[in-house]
Amino acid sequence: MANYKDIKGFNVQSLSSDPAASIGATGTWASAPNINTGRMELFGTGPGTAGMVVNGTPDGSDGSQVYDCEVYNGSAWTEVNNTDQRRQDGASAGVTTSALVTAGYTTSPRGNSSFTETFDGTNWSEETNISNGVQGRRGLGASESASLIVSAAPSNNCELWNGSSWTELNNQNTARSGQGTFGTSTAGIGSGGNPYRAIVESFDGTNWTEVGDLNTARQYLSGGGTQTAGLVFGGSEPPSTTKTEIFDGTSWTEAGDLSIAKYYGAGGGTQPSSIYAGGTPGTPAKESSEEWSTASSLTKINEGQVYFNSSSTNAFKVSQVKVPGGTWASGGNLNAPGTNAGGASNGTPTATLVFAGDRPSRSTVTESYNGSAWTEVNDMNTGRNNLGGFGLQGAANGFGGGTPSATDANESWNGTSWTEVNDLNTTRLYVAGCGLQTAGLAIGNAPNSGITENFNGTNWTEVGDLNTGRSAAMASGSPTAAICSGGQNPSDSSQAVCEQYDGTSWTEVADLNTGRQGGFRFGTKTAQVVAAGYDGSSNVAVTEYFDGSSWTEVGDLSIGRNCGGNMSSGTGTSAGIVFGGTAPGGAATEEWAVSLANYTITVS
Asked: Number of folded domains in the chain?
């Protein structure tokens, strides 16, 4: 008989701590001594054992700005020589023995400051002024002689200091103030910013490129690390937050929280060691400081691994992807806000297609999403709304809908252009779709039809009807294993009924907890996620997960919406996307993700 190790490839090990995805994921914050002069809108550098904080204001008013500079040695803060100018909300870069400060707002004279100073570990020296001295700019760089100062809205201007002069470099793509920055002048990151941004851009010494968004949009945050191993912490969502996120060069993962929620603090360092001091709102935020540190080693997390945690938990655990632990995060906005569109996806938020719909009236517009931005591509041949869609980003079908009357038209997308192919047998409005371009289903029809058709890549064939006729339902899966949830008909505008399809007939299973129409969905016959929709009185943000027998409410969207894109976005429940829809959805995109995590094994 095979044992567990032969099946999954692991022994059941005894571990003193839970496995982690990376060293960064093991990080925790610990209280450090208070700074000597409590303040906010200060700025500084790291790492955790050699930090520095400069200037700021103790009470939030510009009249109380200080010249003070303090350095940290890992155990205490010490006041050192003051700067020549006092300011708040400025920019800093470098380390405690080779630092630069510039920009910000000053009272001497009152206004935005272009004054630039460098620090050699003992003394401050005046340097050539920066050309665009405005508050809200932030800096990154390894030393005062290689410091990059990033933009502050409304300008997206970036400037490089080489130790003797300033040079304007290529602008950031999105202007914003109060970013969380880290890295070097040739390999840097600018993240978040005012107003409450999740946008992240990476700099290669010449150009800025958008990369994976933060999980939590925020402004006036701080950061530390390198372009491929960084972290950001604090900020205002609003309100002020304790959240920390680590970056692997591609994506962000939430890690250990700060003990005090605050923004407008000063900090920096590395992913293994950073410092965060001062900030707002009020006491104790403006006096406090915290150190971030990571473990010296780790056991790598592997999906399916069972182990015994021999620490204080003394529990058997398993590493798994658990859908109820999923969360939604903001993505890039559509170029053309709209409702009642069709769509298709590769099963990941980084590869999605949306087409037609009301933008603001029946449209042919098609947009493709790469995980950070939507790009307009070639239009459909026939403008329509309330259509169905299935397939992948590069191989999709859009069928039915209104033009303005119901249509049976069907178009095929090859990744570049749309081609008219064989029509549906029955004209459809508010039709649901699921499957792939060469093996998909069209389900339901307004006002109360249960008609279902199977597409084999060439022709449509009528198959078994739904037991409960409806339109604007949420379907996912394949032509031989599908699920259809919710919808509407004249007797019920927010159905909760759910049916499964086996390739021949439909069977009713457990109802949704929140009946709705026009929501988003992704998954399979036995594992579906349904999000958003209209519950008969208002748009909802409710997300539910079906495990094959029952529905469980999981993490909600940030906003309620319905009729965004009539699509089945993928074949799994660990990743998905919603976009557009009725107000306040508009152009907004949100992405669903479930992380690999460790869970205690329970017996019931």
From this structure: 3
| In-domain check, residue 400 | no
Q: Could you read off the pLDDT of 453-501 as tens digits, one per residue? A: 999 999 999 999 999 999 999 999 999 999 999 999 998 989 999 999 9
Q: b/e string for 89-128 if b means 16 or more Cβ within 10 A?
A: bbbbbbbbebbbbbbbbbbeeeebbbbbbbbeeeebeebe
Mean local confidence (pLDDT), 169-190? 96
Q: Across residues 28-50, what is the average pLDDT?
A: 95
Mean pLDDT of 90-112: 95
* Residue-number span of the structural domain to which 309 is assigned: 4-18+302-321
Same domain? For 346 and 463 the reply is yes
**CA 532 – CA 157 distance, rounded (Å):** 39
CATH number for the domain spanning 94: value is 2.120.10.80
559 alpha-carbon distance from chain centroid: 15
Tell me: do 314 and 330 sit in the same domain. Answer: no
The confidence band for 595, taking pLDDT boundaries of 50, 70 and 90, is confident
Tally the C-alpha atoms within 13 A of residue 10's C-alpha that lie toward its C-beta: 16
- Shared domain for 489 and 566, answered yes or no, is yes
List alpha helices for 438-498, DSSP H.
none
Residue 120 domain flag = yes
* The residue to which tokens 């709705």 are assigned: 516
Distance spanning both ends of the chain, measured CA to CA:
27
Phi, psi of 4, deg, nearest 5: -60, -40
Are 61 and 113 members of one domain? yes
Each residue of 204-258: pLDDT tens digit? Answer: 999 999 998 898 889 999 999 999 999 999 999 989 999 999 999 988 888 999 9
Residue 271 included in any domain: yes
User: How far, in whole angstroms, is CA 554 from its chain's centroid?
Assistant: 17
**Neighbour tally for 81: CB within 10 Å:** 13
Asked if the structure places residue 399 within a domain, the reply is: no
312 and 461 in a common domain: no
Q: What are phi and psi of 572, to 5 degrees?
A: -125, 175
In terms of domains, do 100 and 220 share one?
yes
What's the pLDDT score for residue 103? Answer: 97
Least confident of 41-55, 64-78, 80-94, 349-363: 349-363
Q: Are residues 310 and 224 in the same domain?
A: no
Residue 220 half-sphere exposure toward CB, CA atoms < 13 A: 25
